[in-house]
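Input sequence (328 aa), recorded before submission:
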Amino acid sequence: MIGRLVAAYRAVHPDLRKPGLLALTVSLNGPTLGLARLITGGATKVQPGVVLERGQVPGSRPGTRVPVLIYRPARRLQASPVVLWVHGGGFVFGTPQADHARCSAYAAAVGAVVVSVDYRLAPEAPFPSALDDVDAALRWVRGSARELEVDPKRLILAGASAGAGLVASLAQLARDRGDPAPLLQLLIYPMLDNRTTLLRDHAGRGWFGWTPRSNRFAWSSYLGRAPGADPPLYAAAARAEDLAGLPPAWIGVGDIDLFAPEAAAYAARLDAAGVACELVVVEGAYHGFDTVDANAPVSRRFVAQQHEAMRNAIAIRDERRLTPRQAS
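Predicted structure, token format:
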């Protein structure tokens, strides 16, 4: 055990190799869930030049509401791009305010309005509660574009960990419903496949940030059943049979993250289905590294790549929109 832990520590990127990593080996379970929610629920700082608003949008059922946070760049063009953000936390913890820094940085870097969803958590609210909430937020963003002063045709779906899994499922749901395709699905170390809980050997991955035990507990809580069982439609994005027609994807993950194999497999399936997909694998990066050690150079580069992917998606959309006018 000690020998494997030492080997795992040595595999961590030098920028991220800190003594505090040992605290990231603790697994999540029922007794520790409350503590995890307390520790991870604090607010980070909103970047200067970004205005934060709080709101509620109509839920999936009559009379229900879904809380959202809205980040507006103080200086932006009207009908700006819009990013729908979904926080991580294994479907069982996490808060929108913990992503103040990330979402306000997105708003500033991309010049977009960012809408972050405070979705319901398992095990108190298992599937499809979280997906229903993020879908309700998507519907509201599209239907309230004039009020938000955004262009719904310049929409990006983005999320981290379980939030990225929800984004991937939301993209599938929206495609099947016939919605206009978003510009991009930005999937940061996404939680996509409940079958990872069935694996006994993870090839040295999953020691830090998110362990196999945490993964089993989280999937069990979210699905309300044995974690490896066949899930309902849209519960685990990697289980979808058809990925054709989905929006372009950017997927970023560390190579020692438990989710690295499922992220790479999903990227390969998207590519095989004709969906443009960029896969970024960060050597020596564990799950959630860019939030645990946000100031590390490797973390800053990873976040910068996210910003670039979003700006590029918007630029491609704008170029296509302007080309016919230039030719006439």
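Checked by second reader. The two ends are 69 Å apart (CA to CA).
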